């Protein structure tokens, strides 16, 4: 009788733990359904869609005028097209090329300069504050190799 009871309890224990592993997948599906991003991937978005989405977001955030909206949309369309071409070129060549990274940094600086010309001083100051806040959020998470190296050097300097 004891053996039967022990076998039943072990069976229930194993069955209970196997059902517990399915919960995160269901939870993840529920989150994607709630957010409306079901099956949407970044690769499926065209450069025009990226530019439009970014322009709308910046319009809400920084209260852009109609003329600024058009300029920002054109700038981000150009940027999205250049990034798409850059990624295609990068994939064809060896990934992680230092020259390609430097070229992308130079392009980014050029885009920032053009973006600064579009916005007013107050809007650009708010934009810079938002960028600094965003960078500080990701600083400790190590999402980018450059940030990891920066964090390591800062930690090494603090220990010294």
Structural commentary:
By secondary structure, this protein is mainly alpha-helical. It is built from seven helices and no strands. Helix 3 (about 45-60) crosses helix 4 and helix 4 packs antiparallel against helix 5 (about 100-120). It starts with a helix and ends with a helix. About 80% of the residues lie in helices and about 0% in strands. The mean pLDDT is about 75. The longest helix has 27 residues, at about 65-90.
Notable characteristics:
mainly alpha; 7 helices; 81% helix
What's this model, at a glance?
By secondary structure, the protein is mainly α. It is 81% helix and 0% strand. The mean pLDDT is 77.
List the helices and strands and how they pair.
Blueprint lengths: L1 H19 L2 H13 L11 H16 L3 H27 L5 H21 L2 H19 L5 H15 L1
Number of helices: 7
Mean of pLDDT: 77
Give start-end ranges of low-pLDDT stretches: none
Helix content: over 70%
State which percent range the strand residues make up. Answer: under 5%
Q: How many beta-strand runs? A: 0
Shape: elongated
Structural class: mainly alpha
Oligomer: single chain
Radius of gyration: 25 Å
